[in-house]
Amino acid sequence: HQRTEKINNTLCPEFTTPITINYYFELVQKVKISIYDIDNTTSQLDDDDFLGEFETTLGQIVSNETCKGSLKLRSKKLHGTVTIRAEEISNTNNDIVALEFKGEKLDKKDMFGKSDPYLEIHKMSSDGTYMKIHKTEIIKNTLNPIWKAFRIPIRTLCNGDYDKSLKICCYDYDNDGGHDLIGIFTTTLTEMFRAEKNAVSYECINPKKQAKKKSYKNSGHIILEKIKIGVDFTASNGPPQKINSLHYIGQNGRNQYLDALISVGNVCQDYDTDKLFPAFGFGAKIPPNYQVSHLFPLNFNPTNPYAAGIAGVVEAYQACISNIQLYGPTNISPIINHIAGFAREAMKTSSAANYFILLLLTDGVITDMEATKKAIVDASNLPMSIIIVGVGGADFAAMEELDGDDGVLRCSTGAATRDIVQFVPFRQFIQSSPEVLAQHVLAEVPRQLTQHYYKHDIEPLRHR
Fold first, then answer.
1. Radius of gyration, CA atoms only, the chain
2. pLDDT single digits (tens) 283-320
3. Phi, psi dihedrals of residue 293, rounded to the nearest 5°
4. b/e string for 314-340 if b means 16 or more Cβ within 10 A?
């Protein structure tokens, strides 16, 4: 387990110590956040007051970027909340920067003294909000504080983006936890590097005072005296390619993905006239810019994503896997909505000429469950079925909810008009012949197809 720092005398702490966890999108990584009130110097927690805990998965945290949950007491009652923010740590910059700040002529905040100033550094998150990443020591009873120099990794400060906005706040410390804002300013690491030659001075602005007084100028100055850069040689590495990876292609040119694809695809292709199959991937960083994509053609050709036969899909997969960076989270609603677009166009013909089967092969638990349920509910009125094959040893219990065998699938906007999903874990069929898997996952498709056309009063096409 890992711990944050202790924050004194507050009911709304904002922790700055980061918790670093290796993220593997193909695994369910359970996370439990426990909060304690510590009133002693011992390292054990059994003599401290338990304030609550929150359990989730790392996939849920990563997919939401900002994850908020209720704290559960041992009595099972809920009391308070915890907010977790996630950010990928860049491996491209392992430098550490040393910063040295001082203040001049800061506002006086204490009735019987001056001020007890300290600084907080916040960096901008991807959602536009700021996240606290560092807090200096408190300098007692002064309007001209000189803080100790401190070192901070550039990855923590700005994740390698020297132009990322940084917000620096100056507060007056109060024992009761109600710290008073002296002022704030924003900057970037690029701008701060000007201090390599000369000190950089920033006006410390209090927004409330600025709004009230036309004559207001500032609440003092914060000066960056020095900045130095060094190299951290304890570079962290991503997980290596392993022979037991689900995507590892053995000497026979196969893996579990290909076994499932070929087993089901060989049956489906007999019912397709042109034998051209659009093949997509999701949850990876793709060339040329290696941005995360939740919907990309396996052949990287968005204008023509089709492969010739199942053999063509296999070839596209084998070529694709060596050109992408496996990533996450497992969001499947984009690909369902994309195929639903084809089915929606087919509905306009008012004929039984086209019915779509989406075969989804995934080794991760779905992280956009509510969006996926809505996508399925919306697609239940279209000429399509969805087959989900879970590859690997992950916990796929949540997938069963999507398979409507135990009742009608519902989401926040309504209920499915019919069951269009069949889910199976591939591990149950590893020792079986390919025909057994295909028979199991495709057994419901004829009923689903006839249900759709009967519901819309569409007659089957006659053979010529």
1. 28
2. 888 888 888 888 899 999 999 999 998 899 989 988 88
3. -130, 140
4. bbbbeebbeebebbbbbbbbbbbbbbb
